[in-house]
């Protein structure tokens, strides 16, 4: 029987605990809209009164993490315990004084692990987030989540004031930080259970969605605290959702709200109320929002609304300016100065997303319309940017047969003489209902076109009529076509958006890794292949399936969890165009 032998043993279900935490953080990052990989491992530091084989344990012990960065960890923990700021703190109740030594030790273990990882983090270009340690049997156990440094360049955290104790920040630096903190909080709770790691974090999808919602509430306290510097309510996220959802005389709420202190020197009031309006009255706040515009904002400190005004440009560096932009019905975003920190649509919060990058847009067009000249692709990118920045929704159809389609659909649109579709022309013609039809060379042939087409598999009732009509029209044609859809809720889609190109060598490497794996170490190649199953050839599908059959038939340890994988099969849409080499 194949047995899972653990040399660096901390507790019975440590492998399941780490695997469950890995899945949870991946689900949370996916819900945030952060397209990145995360790595999870667990560090155990032997308790002073315990007997154990190792001073420090790592899970997984055969992964990329070694015990070398943790040499001398136990003496460093003791030094941190002696110097801990809580040593000089006295509580008025006996239970708190009784718990103080253990809380100091748990905090010190986490701090020592975080410090030990600092140098290796810099060398690997990652950031390590450490959970609050928990005593499990003979070890103080610290869960660690590592994210790539590039993620924080894409979503820069705020530089905000901290408390006197550096371990306890006053503000959360970013929505991403808040989400990771929530995940680690769940990990701490799991470690405190009688059998940590046994059946943890299920159902995973629902829990990940809940953690993202809680993280949004946590992070929304940051702008209020940073401006008011006092206790702030924990329901600001829900308040803004409610205000954005309310209609005023049938109109959606569109405007700005500046979070600031009423006596801030950099605020110029246009109208100041004699008596501030309570912010916790959502219908009243929504009525005030109706007075705001693109250049005049509602001025509030998150508890009271003081009037209408604008932020003045001042010399030198001042405080950060936090602004809530109400974009549409049930749609808003939080900015710090010009940087968007959080976007909320219909109560769901995400990190800000670039709709489609220039490189992705031009590559997708070029692969669909191979004869299109580079200048036409660049011009269509400029038109796309104009569509995204417009206040209303719109749709652009790029079609190889645009001229013939303009004639066929003349009764349900307005055909025009072939005209170069520039951003200025697009702004003029996109104000009416219907699609703008253009050929791959960038020549416009019709405007206001009502599209036809049969229902397609990609249609979904969760999206609006504009999106679904574009999908039906493109899917129902043998000619090459592309729909660019900007919905009224500012969602941007390209259909079809072709998959990224991959290297054949990378695919083969993961198939070979799965073939050589066992039930204890097959998870990484299995997960990679499952996420990239579209690219596998017939032969690679057969090899991967045979490897899965062998692994899943291996004898299992008691309590061992083995996820079954849907078997691979060739995708009929896969072609050589999807490979880099």
Give structural notes.
- The protein is built from 17 helices and 19 strands.
- The relative contact order is 0.07.
- Strands 7-9-8-6-10-11-12-13 form an eight-stranded mixed sheet. A six-stranded mixed sheet has the order 15-17-16-14-18-19, with helices on both faces. Strands 1, 2, 3, 4 and 5 form a five-stranded antiparallel sheet that branches.
- It has 581 residues and is α+β, with helices and mostly antiparallel strands.
- The chain has helices spanning 14-32, 73-83, 94-124, 149-154, 175-191, 204-219, 221-228, 236-245, 282-289, 358-368, 374-389, 402-408, 423-429, 465-475, 504-515, 523-531, 538-552; strands spanning 38-46, 56-59, 126-130, 134-136, 139-148, 255-259, 267-278, 297-300, 304-311, 322-328, 331-336, 339-345, 348-350, 394-399, 414-420, 435-438, 443-449, 481-486, 492-495.
- Strand 16 (435-438) and strand 17 form a beta hairpin.
- It is flat and about 85 Å long.
- The protein has four domains: 14-219, no CATH class; 229-350, YojJ-like (1, CATH 3.40.1700; 358-495, DNA integrity scanning protein, DisA, N-terminal domain (YojJ-like (1, 3-Layer(aba) Sandwich); 504-578.
